[in-house]
Write a structure and sequence with these properties.
Elements (H helix, E strand, L loop, with lengths): L3 E4 L5 E5 L4 E2 L6 H11 L10 E7 L5 H13 L2 E8 L5 H5 L14 H7 L6 E2 L4 E7 L12 E6 L13 H10 E9 L4 H9 L2 E7 L6 E7 L2
Parallel strand pairs: 4-5, 4-8, 5-7, 8-9
Antiparallel strand pairs: 1-2, 2-3, 6-7, 9-11, 10-11
Amino acid sequence: MKREVIKTADGSMTIHIPEMNENYHSGHGALQEAKHVFIQNGLLEFKNREDVVVFEMGFGSGLNAFLTLESCESRNQKVQYTGIEAFPVDYNMAKKMNYEAYVDSKISNLFLKMHELNWNEAHQLTELFSFQKLHQKIENHIPKTESNDIIYFDAFGPRAQEAMWDISILNKMHSLLKPGGLFVTYCAKGQLKRDLKSLGFRVESMQGPPGKREMTRGWKCC
């Protein structure tokens, strides 16, 4: 499957798949979308916690993980981060993303370090940030139940990857979350919201990032 690096409206880069006509992040701005959806409306809901456990569905380019590292380093918060990805981005393509330019120089080298690290192994990237990448399809992943505070659900959209939004996958996400945990995604489809409600989530429609009217959050009821 062909992948190419393109520039988005805010100047940051993303990966485009011509065959699917799909981007890894919004063409309206990769960086601003990731910050708005996953950091501002996800991670920062737990900003007063000493530590937080994050699971990302779709590690992709590594942008969400890198922004999480940046946010937690700046606030002295410990993070245990797991990203799962069936089709990893190769190192040479990761180098073209230039996400290092948007963070403090003290951690800028860690973006490519994430891509250098071995898959399916736990790594202590900094004193605060522990990290692992799982090279695996989510269908084959056996979750440790009630082990995560936040799920970043960043699979390709339902138009391109309908199976990733099936209720069986969403139910697996529900089982991964601790009571009171948060599922957050850029998607705002009505079917997604109905499925989340049926699984016991308290669903919120939030203002979307630039170029998108809404996004979705779901809180796992205690």
